[in-house]
Amino acid sequence: MSKFVSEREMQYQRECMQRVAAQNNGRTAFVDTYGCQQNEADSERMRGMLVEMGYILTDSSDADVVIINTCAVRENAENRVFGVIGHLVHTKRKNPSQIIILAGCMGGEASVRERIKRSYRHVDAVLDTTSFWRLPEVILGILEGDKTVAEINTVDGVVTPDNRIAEGMPVQRVVPHKAWISVMYGCNNFCTYCIVPYLRGRERSRRSEDIVREIREVVEDGCKDITLLGQNVNSYGKDSDDETDFAGLLEMAAHVDGEFLIRFMTSHPKDTTIRLLDTMAAYPRIARHLHLPVQSGSDRILKLMNRRYTAENYLELIRYARKVMPDIVLTSDIIVGFPGETEEDFRQTLDLVAEVEYDSLFTFIYSKREGTPAAKMEDPASPEEKSERFNRLIELQNTISMKKHSEYIGKTVTTLIDGEGKRGQYNLTARTNGGRLVHLKGDKSLIGKYMPVRITEATTWSLVGELALNDQK
User: Fold this and answer.
1) Cβ count within 10 A of residue 64
2) Can you give the C-alpha Rg of the chain in angstroms?
3) What is the mean pLDDT of residues 79-88?
4) Pairing between β-strand 125-126 and β-strand 99-104 as defined by DSSP bridges
5) Which terminal CB of the chain, N or C, has fewer other CB atoms within 10 Å?
6) Which of 373, 365, 327, 328 shows the shortest CA–CA distance to 349?
7) Does position 231 have pLDDT exceeding 50, yes or no?
8) Are 447 and 224 within 8 A, CB to CB?
9) Residue-number span of the structural domain to which 305 is assigned
10) Are residues 248 and 386 in the same domain?
């Protein structure tokens, strides 16, 4: 069986879009997105299909169609979504023809589907991450009274993911100068704390020519900042007959004509290669930013997490990256309080952070996720101990971030002016090549343009600058 949705099936979705558009009369739609950049990329495709169906996009939950694109990584995220769904009972009461669809990772959980059926009957349909390409068919079915569309990818109440890749969906991007482009879907790693492989399925890579074509299209449309996405982008191509690996894909992307930067996330240390780092160093169009989640500095904990590398393996990659790219910006993820973590394990994490000196960190206190192996592990550390460790990590990283950011003061850097600011007098925001946030003043017409900015101040989390049109870039 092909891993791609057939052209015949995609043509049927296009026909469904046309049939919905023919009976649409200024109706509105709202896509509410939770979670990671992959979810945002999926939402952009759902918005694209809604626009093709004649819907006017809005940010209001009173819209005629409301799609909640969900995250299931943490239990708190799920609870928040159920709160939003509960509120929608009131909008549905005011507008009985309102269509409410739950999509995303939560849609792949049988327990969620059962809870929706039992307690949230105002929800019209549930789509998982592998079936949202069938959105036009679902909406048409609801409009025409076909109740079976609520059971897509479900057989006798059991979720059966359709792990095929759908190409050719229309895209409606929220920010015209930024693009999220998925290069692969799913994950084969099965880290013991993570639910994603169970919900997004096994790894499936898109064809390299389709990805490069999409990059070329967004660049021609004026996009300046492109992020290639995957649960583990470094595994790209391993499931494919195409001999292109991720480093090769980056090289192909870097040869597309235009003014833009290529970024990517997320990378797994076990699959990060010297060839990948050399490719980053060789092409100026590839951003000097590597987000490489380490999760812990303890080999014992890394083994319990099923991460399949050691702290020393990780540090060797960091040292090589800095050797070939001295200006590289490094960021990472760390989980504090994983089941069984001791004070010595945590101290090793602090030692690793002190050696690497990340520009910034995404830090989390371990949250039990039912359905994962870690949820069954003994966890003797108290919440107070975990919070105390977490605070120590934050204090260390804040000191490092302040030091790193202070080194920018007085330098002029090329930035992409990417949006309106909300920090006092600074009405614009920008991003450096390495992804550092910069606040500055300027005309809104600069949004979407690369501009030289002289850095004048630094904080723990961001930089402050001023336009430096007369400086050398």
Assistant:
1) 17
2) 23
3) 92
4) parallel
5) N
6) 365
7) yes
8) no
9) 178-404
10) yes
CA–CA separation, 267 and 246 (whole Å): 10
Judgement on whether residues 398 and 421 belong to the same structural domain of the protein: no
**Do 393 and 418 belong to one domain?**
no
420 and 393 in one domain? no
Q: How many structural domains are present in the chain?
A: 3
Mean pLDDT over 182-187 rounds to 94
How do residues 10-63 score in pLDDT, each as one tens digit?
999 999 999 999 999 999 999 999 988 889 999 999 999 999 999 999 999 999
Q: pLDDT band for position 187 (50/70/90)?
A: very high
What are the start-end ranges of the E strands in 89-173? 99-104, 125-126, 154-155, 158-159
- Between the alpha carbon of residue 49 and those of residues 8, 13, 228, the distances in Å are 17, 9, 21
Distance (Å, rounded) from C-alpha 175 to C-alpha 98? 27
Contact 258, 224 (CB under 8 A): no
Range in 184-193, 219-228, 415-424, 439-448 with the lowest mean pLDDT: 415-424
Q: Is the residue at 356 inside a domain? A: yes
Q: 470: which DSSP letter?
A: T
Give all strands (DSSP E) within 371-467, no chain letters.
Answer: 412-423, 426-432, 437-440, 450-458, 463-467
d(CA 367, CA 349): 18
Sign, CA torsion 193/196/202/207: negative
Please calculate the CA angle 335-341-346 and round it to the nearest 5 degrees.
70
Tokens representing residue 114 in the block:
């059962």
| CA dihedral sign of residues 240, 165, 256, 291 | negative
Whether 314 is covered by a domain: the verdict is yes
User: 50 near 8, Cβ under 8 Å?
Assistant: no
- Per-residue confidence (pLDDT) for residue 473, from 0 to 100: 43
Same domain, 288 and 325: yes
Q: State residue 422's pLDDT score.
A: 81
Count helices and strands in the chain by DSSP H and E runs = 13, 20
CA distance 107 to 130: 10
Residue 8 half-sphere exposure toward CB, CA atoms < 13 A: 0
DSSP state of 266: -
Q: Classify the phi-psi angles of 205: left when phi > 0, otherwise alpha if psi is within -120 to 50, otherwise beta.
A: beta
Q: What span, in angstroms and rounded, lies between the C-alpha atoms of 237 and 206?
A: 8
